[in-house]
Amino acid sequence: MDKFRMMFQFLQSNQESFMNGICGIMALASAQMYSVFEFSCPCMPEYNYTYGMALLVVPPIWFFLLGFVLNNNVSVLAEEWKRPTGRRRKDPSILRYMFCSITQRSLIAPAVWVCVTLMDGKSFLCAFSVNLDIDRFGNHSLITGMSEAEKLKLLARIPCKDLFEHQEIRVAATRYIKCISQACGWMVLLMMTFTAFLIRAIRPCFTQAAFLKTKYWSHYIDIERKMFDETCKEHAKSFAKVCIHQYFESISGEMGHLHRHHSGKDESEEEEEKKSDEDKLLGIRVQDDMNKVLWNWHTCKPALALRKDQTDGENNGKMNGGANGAASGFVNGHAHDVAKKEWAVYYSKI
């Protein structure tokens, strides 16, 4: 159990690297799934286009949603977006940063699937075979006297080599459509690479301070949530231990004596353990008080301004921003009111 706990703590401390690894695994899985997937075009005019385009669009949507499901920051983003303002205002730039980071990671696997599908060309051939002009591939007598419906049925059978009799026409049409599909695949890959290059090249041209500020507070929100959950677990564990101990003591003093005797611990050790559990309660010993604490945390989170206790009575309870601001030459830790515009490009290190 300790090994699993250590592994979980390691994954939490290296969440960004872990999520990048998850995205890489999903990208490889998408390519592997396509290679294992048995493509079977229906070879019917009314279903070819639907089946081919569904294979190109539906799996990427599934991979995209799966990327959101596997990302822990989705719940953090939703909680920060929906929480009441209270004493802590919500910064839209932080929400944008978190959303862009999640979205960019979730787009990796869908992009790999689309590129692999277009490079292979089977779905493209199935979807657009009915749009071919068969006269361009020779043997004009093949379609002489055919109605429009019969011609569509003939073109729809091109992806199925066991249903199309004229193999030379089928091979020529297949190569033609696959060339177009591969060209589209290379264009998509080039556009994605160029977009990623532009993002990385343009980002240093914007204000780095705004980006660092947004990145810092997004990490803070994630860490604060984890530490609050850990503190709640510690408090619940201590609350349960103290409650159970008091329950047995209230039933019978003899039962409490027997419990201490059979536990194999000295009274001093038990007293220290009891005091430790009492300290972890942080003065909250009633169910209604704990419910109020949890409700206040959700509805009115504390302001992000820490108090520093001073030995001097006048400075006791003031914000440490005043001391830092005086040392920096500013009053109350803030700069003069100067209109500034901050711009930042949001991206994740993938």
UniProtKB/TrEMBL annotation:
Region annotated Disordered, chain positions: 257-280
Transmembrane segments: 21-37, 49-70, 183-202
MF term (GO), any: monoatomic cation channel activity
Keyword set includes Glycosyltransferase: no
PANTHER family according to UniProt: CALCIUM HOMEOSTASIS MODULATOR PROTEIN, CALCIUM HOMEOSTASIS MODULATOR PROTEIN 1
Chief localisation class: membrane
Name of protein: Calcium homeostasis modulator protein 1
GO BP of this protein: ATP export
Name of a matching Pfam family: Ca_hom_mod
Keywords, in A-Z order: Ion channel, Ion transport, Membrane, Transmembrane, Transmembrane helix, Transport
Family in the record: Belongs to the CALHM family.
Source organism superkingdom: Eukaryota
Gene Ontology annotations for the cellular component aspect, listed alphabetically: plasma membrane
Record membrane topology: Multi-pass membrane protein
Annotated localization: Membrane
